[in-house]
Amino acid sequence: MFTGLIEHTAPVLEINRQSELTSLKIQNTHFKNLIQGESIAVNGVCLTVTNFTNDTFEVDIVNETMNVTNFNQLQPNQSVNLERALRLDQRLGGHLVGGHVEGTGQIITSSIDGDALVLEITVPDMLMKYMVHKGSVTIDGISLTIFEVDYERCRITLNIIPETQRQTNLSNRIVDDNVNIESDMIVRHVAHLMSFKQAGGTHV
């Protein structure tokens, strides 16, 4: 479980693509006392640390994850957002994030409004019912508030404050880039329970 508050960004040093598995080696100058097997969200995807040194760590990605995320477009030296798993004794500053990306969206427009970076992003049709005005969404692992929702065109608009621009890789994103999307798990689970009830289900 994560909060969507990015702790830092780091470049991908190596990408080893094989038929069944892709391995990433990522620079690490921030996380101390890493443990093999712990979870780290990389661009919002919950991955397991398989190996580490004093200044790097490695993760493996299965093909299913490659297919539903933007990792298939990842290049060496590209910066990724990183967050270690949530501890039960820390504040939940963002919202509950599972690290299970449901699909990708494309940046349609990028503009500046005062100090804010304004992004318009497409959302897969199957996820639009979970997009709520002033609700939460996770983009590349970042907990963000939805500023506008366009249900007809399957798009959302996000206003990115300067602090988020500094702490994440969103300031490096350009039009046509694909981003990972995870809907708000609470909205998603409530919608699932409601649809189950409407279908006549009795066991939850």
Short account of what is shown:
With 204 residues, this protein is mainly beta. The protein has 2 domains: 8-84, Elongation Factor Tu (Ef-tu), domain 3; 103-193, Elongation Factor Tu (Ef-tu), domain 3, CATH 2.40.30.20. The chain has 3 helices and 12 strands; from the N terminus they run E-E-E-E-E-H-E-E-E-E-E-E-H-E-H.
Describe this structure in words.
The protein is mainly β. It has 3 helices and 12 strands; from the N terminus they run βββββαββββββαβα. A hairpin with a 3-residue loop joins strand 1 and strand 2. The chain is globular, with a radius of gyration of 17 Å. The chain starts with 7 loop residues before the first strand and ends in a 6-residue tail after the last helix.
